[in-house]
Amino acid sequence: MDPDRRISARLPTNRSGKILCGAFAWDCVIRDLSLQGAKVQMLASAAPPTKAQLVDLVAGQAHDVMVAWQKEREVGMRITRTYDLRGLSPAAAGTAKRIWQAFRADAPTG
Length: 110
What we know:
Shape: globular
Strand order of the largest sheet: 1-2-3-6-5-4
Order of helices and strands: EEEEEEH
Number of helices: 1
C-alpha cells in the first residue's frame, strides 16, 4: 500500500461542481477537497483538460486546477489558486461567478 503523500488531509464531500475551460463546462461531483487538491467524479465520460477551473457550487469558490491523475471518471486535481465567489471577484473568475450565481438562483429555498 502506498503511503499518503498529501500535505493536508482531504475532507470527504459530496458537492455539486463544474469544470470550466474556455466556452466548455462539464458537470462533476466533488468527492473530497483540501487546500492543495480535490478528487472529482465526472458525470460524463469526457476527459477534463490538463488546466481548468473547478467551481464548487455549494461553497461559492472557484479553483484554478491542474489534472494530476485520472482513472475512468475519477480525476485528481492539484489546486493552484482559489477565488471566493461570494464577494468581489477578479475577471479570471467571472464565468465561474456567473455559473455560481445561476446555481444559487435555481436552488430551492427553505
